[in-house]
Every structure is written in C-alpha cells, then in structure tokens.
Amino acid sequence: MKAFVFHGPGQASWQDVPDPAVKEPTDAIVKVGAVTICGTDLHILKGDVPEVRPGTVLGHEAVGEIVETGSDVRTVRPGDRVLVSCITSCGRCRFCRESAYGQCRGGGGWILGHLVDGTQAEYVRVPHADLSVHALSATVRGEDAVLLADIFPTAYEVGVLNGHVRPGDTVAIVGAGPIGLAAIATARLFAPERIIAVDLTPARLEAAHRLGADAIADVHEAPGQLVADLTDGLGADVVIEAVGVPESFEMCTRMVRPGGHVANVGVHGRPATLHLEDLWSKNVTITTGLVDTYSTPTLLRMAAAGRLPTGQLVTHTFPLHHMEEAYDVFSRAGETGALKVVLGVEQHAQVAVPTPP
Hints:
The chain is of the alpha/beta class. The chain is built from 13 helices and 15 strands.
C-alpha cells in the first residue's frame, strides 16, 4: 500500500510500505476513506516532536471502513463505517477509567502517527479498536466526520471546557486556525457575551467572523487593548491559546482578567516564559491538556443533527495520493487560505430525511 512516511525533520514522502496486519486480538484494520492533516503533523515535520521516529506513517484522524478485526473486538465488524479517533484507549488503566484517555497507560493515548504508524495511508491498524473507533451514521459525510477525530474534541475539551466558558463571558481566542475556529464554534454553545478572535492572517480572521466571532483583531494591532476596551479594562474571562508559540501564550496571560482562565491548546516546541511576577496575585488558572476525546460521541450526535459547522472549515480536498501537494497547501495557509484539507473524500449516498407531514 501507499502511505505518507516521516523520514526526519523536513523530510517525508508518499511511498510504498507493507500492508498493516492484525498484531493483537484487540486490533482492527481500517481502509481509509477520508483523512486530514493536523497542525501537529506540521510540528512533527519541523522536529518539534522528537519521539516520532523516522519511518513512521503520519496522521491520527480518519474515516474509513473496517476490513478486518482481531478475535477480541466486539463493537465493530468488517463492513462498518467508522471514525478513527486521534486517541487510542485501552479502557482498563486508571486514566481510562477516569475518561482521561489521552493519558492511557495501557498502550493507548496519542499513538497513531506518533508512536505507531498512523492514518495517512490506504490502510491503518487501530489498536484497542472497541474504544478507539466510533460507528458513523450514514447521514454524516466523511469530510465532516473526520474533523471530529481531533480538532473539534480538542477545541471543545482542552479549550472551552477546560477554560470553563460560561454564559455572559468574554472569550478571547488567540489563533484562528482550525482549532481556534472549532473553539469559536463550540464556545458559542455556552452563550458567551462576546468572542474575540486574534490572528495574523486576514482570511482566517474572516473565517472566525463567519463562524461567530463578535470581534476580530490582527495580532500586530494591539489585540490586548481591544480586549481591555471591550471589558472596561478587566480582561477576558477565558483566553484560549490555539497557536503553540511562546509569544501567543504570553499574550494570553496578559489578556486574562483576575480570576480568569487561560486554556492552552497549542502544541509548543519551545519554552514559554511564565510571568509569575505579574500573575501570582491575580488568581489566574492556567490549564494545559492533551485531548481525551470523551466528548466525541456527543459531538458526533451534534454533527448528525447539523449542529456543528464542520463543513465551513474544509477549504481544500484532494485525492488520497496527492498527500505531498496537500501538505504543501496546508503548510502555506497564509498564502493558500487553507483551513482544513481533506484527502480521499468518501463517495457514499446521502440518506434522505423524511419531511414532517
């Protein structure tokens, strides 16, 4: 089969690799129908995630069809259409029992495209399949569902829920890439008073406005002052960091009000300064996190009901074998206007919804 293989910082290629096979009785083999590229994949290519070894197939998000299962798999069978979660769960360790699947100690957590071969391939082996894939309704398109493998649960859990967004809050989101846009969409579920989006790309700021941001600010035009002006100098109740560079994290800590929350979602490859000399007396809560995907079933139901604007985030689609081109377009988002790129989009019939009498 063909797959997108990491060879070291700045080096990767779409090439022939051996077909995956069932190794454990809890494994499933999935034929990939739709896959996307994550900002984390770009961090890997930059060398920001050194535990990814050369020779690893990248990718941790997919929609596809089960083609083979191990003897212990009970919840899916060959022919089932499924979402492959970015997080793998053994279901037995202490963390999985607490729904903290991202911290799984039983061979799970974030392993696809990280510690084992991932989803940017024609086929993928999914360990612990019973708890690591989700059956899909035929009404959910593959290009919509694949966004629920990672970006929507990440934005919702690590950003919105960890940030304790509440009705009437002012929410500032620094970074209007796919995660930041998904954070805007899911923060709106809690009826904040206003959402302020900060980015350096006009196209992404326009997308933020379309998805529900009440105010937008270019990062070079004093966004902190805008937040202060809109909050009578207090600062935002919740600030979500969705970039992953020191400058954006430090900006977030300057924007938050006393007693507020800073929810870091971005993947950081360099140290950031924590200005405790300013923050120690402000009762600020700072959270970090790897997504656990405990919210995925809820988000899938919302997507099936048309309650999530997933389709608005997909700007480019490609055949699966155009992986290198898709990476190029996604990595130059400032020039190409790319938000999410989806490859190998499934072709399947849409189920008609009966009209009420």
